[in-house]
Specification:
Order of helices and strands: HHEEEEEEEEEEHH
Structural class: alpha+beta
CATH architecture: Sandwich
Strand order of the largest sheet: 1-10-4-7
Distance between the termini: 58 Å
Length: 158
């Protein structure tokens, strides 16, 4: 993949939606192409994550282990979707597994490369960190609403 093709793939992701071409180029230069055949994991639940992924092509299943055994699907990702974004800022335990449903092509931005880039391109790195914080804030809001709904249901059942 050329840098321009990587820029286009990053631009298809909501995480990079507000980036200029220059910003996308900065991250395209450190993004590594990865291929995952159908059935292979991009990352595994409870392991420490150290990279974010942007899906270029293919489909990814997001699963969680069930206490009684087996996995349950909790989501899916396709072209333009981003996964594991918090790991680019700090090592973090994966809450789900991401497994290629079909042959996948992804771009990986590792925490190591992000941190090495930060002194050279602080503005671009701050912008990505802010975008990741925005994703986390939206997810926290969604989780808060789900928790509120569960609490109301439990109170109605008592």
């Amino acid at each position: 993949m050329t840098v321009e093709e990587k820029m286009e793939a990053l631009g298809a992701s909501a995480l990079f939606a507000d980036f200029t071409d220059t910003g996308k180029r900065i991250f395209a230069t450190i993004a590594q192409e990865k291929r995952a055949p159908a059935g292979s994991p991009l990352f595994v639940e409870n392991m420490v994550g150290e990279a974010l992924y942007v899906v270029v092509s293919g489909e990814v299943r997001l699963t969680q282990r069930r206490p009684e055994g087996g996995d349950r699907e909790v989501g899916q990702a396709g072209p333009g979707d981003h996964l594991g974004e918090l790991a680019v800022l700090a090592p973090s335990v994966r809450l789900v597994s991401a497994v290629a449903r079909s042959d996948c092509h992804v771009l990986e931005i590792s925490q190591r490369d992000f941190l090495a880039l930060a002194p050279q391109k602080p503005q671009a790195c701050l912008k990505l960190a802010t975008a990741v914080a925005g994703v986390l804030a939206r997810r926290a809001g969604d989780a808060r609403e789900l928790l509120r709904e569960a609490l109301v249901r439990s109170q109605q059942g008592s």
